[in-house]
Amino acid sequence: MADGQGDRGRQLDRLVEDRRDDLIALTRDLVRIPTLNPPGDHYLEICEYLSRRLSKSGFEVQLIRAEGAIGDSERYPRWNVVARREGAHAGECVHFNSHIDVVEVGRGWTKDPFGGELSDGRIYGRGTCDMKGGLAASIIAAEAFLEAFPDFSGAVEISGTADEESGGQGGVAYLAEKGFFSPERVQHVIIPEPLNKDRVCLGHRGVWWAEIETFGEIAHGSMPFLGDSAIRHMGAVLSEMEDSLFPALAQKRTAMPVVPEGARQSTLNINSIHGGQAELDDYRASLPSPCVADSCRMVIDRRFLMEETINEVRAEITDLLERVKGRRDRFSYDLRPMHEVLPTMTRRDAPVVETVSRAIREVLGKDAQYVVSPGTYDQKHIDRIGRLKNCIAYGPGILDLAHKPDEWVGVDDMVDSAKVMGRSLIELLAGDRHASAPQPTSKEGKN
User: Fold this and answer.
1) Domain 206-277+289-341 has CATH 3.30.70.360
2) Do domains 6-204+343-436 and 206-277+289-341 have the same CATH topology?
């Protein structure tokens, strides 16, 4: 295959290969710290672990608590770590951003979710794929680059941030508001999300979360005709969704290269439904009282396309509820927006896109695929708050394994991705292009 970086690229590859065992150990260590979100466990522990590791590699490290952010509390403080290594000369900054939180374990595991088991070239555990394997690969890539090119220009940053799985308000959003992702400080961002090692992810679809509540009147369960069931009202809402909304969404298609194919249409997921009196975790210990439900709540997760506007998305649900109201006596509801993110997509000719694409071709011997993620990730905050457009997701791991039981990441995939990241650093910080790079105005985030 053609190798535009020649001996320098091959030198970097060898240094990454030499660190294979270290990469495995680092990933397993990270997985064994159960950073579950919610509620936000062990954030400080993993940040301190990363701080010790990166300090030994010459990084200046800051531990930053997102005080006052959504989710931050004395019991579950939202800690983040940001590490920066300055080069020998002025130049641009390349930032690798990974989230440290993982989702709930769920059922169906045959492996220890926090054991970090290594078997047949795979590391198993919650967060291996999404995205502690990517975090580990970026650290190995940066350390190999720093050993090979100590005279580089610019700066390398690595961050481990909180709460991506719940919106990122206590992580990247908070840091972006403080100036850590301003274009004056950082020029290139790579987020090692698990989009497959031969793909460059340009962005993501939009999302709108909302809670719908229907209301009724409480009465004795043996005489439901004396009350008004909010659950039955919600059933009518579900029926209208099945009859009209879901078929309409299936017809909405996008030119965005969203993967997998099923996500190239608009989608709606019903996250949860809660109606009536809450049952105990152990239903055998006690039974709920016989009452007609006077409230039923449903949380919806609407994913939308660049071809749609947020106003259209909101109106679909409002119009649906009004149609139901027009057909049902005593139907009343409340619609409460919870969370919204607009779609984003980086241009294919952006510097970080072209650089990582060339590195994929050199390492893997194939052209990079350009994709868009079905779900949002922290690029949204870097784009909207940080005003930094030169951002992509690239990392090891198979997207379909994220949040699944027996989640795993392949060691070879991590090694290859680390080579791609390392070669990208060569081009961005140790190549000819750094000669005209803008000089960052500050080493610190703005306060």
Assistant:
1) yes
2) no
CATH for 6-204+343-436, options being 3.40.50.150, 3.20.20.70, 3.40.630.10, 3.30.1490.20: 3.40.630.10
Per-residue model confidence as pLDDT tens digits over 380-407: 999 999 999 999 999 999 989 999 999 9
Task: For 143, list phi and psi in degrees, rounded to 5.
Answer: -65, -40
The residue extents of the domains of the chain are: 6-204+343-436, 206-277+289-341
CA distance linking residue 210 with residue 343, whole number of Å: 17
* pLDDT tens per residue, range 272-312: 999 998 876 665 666 778 999 999 999 999 999 999 999 99
Residue with tokens 């952006």: 350
Task: Enumerate residues 6+ apart whose C-beta is below 8 A from 181.
Answer: 95, 172, 175, 189, 381, 382, 385, 386, 388
CA angle 138–140–145, rounded 5-degree value: 95
The model's pTM? 0.89
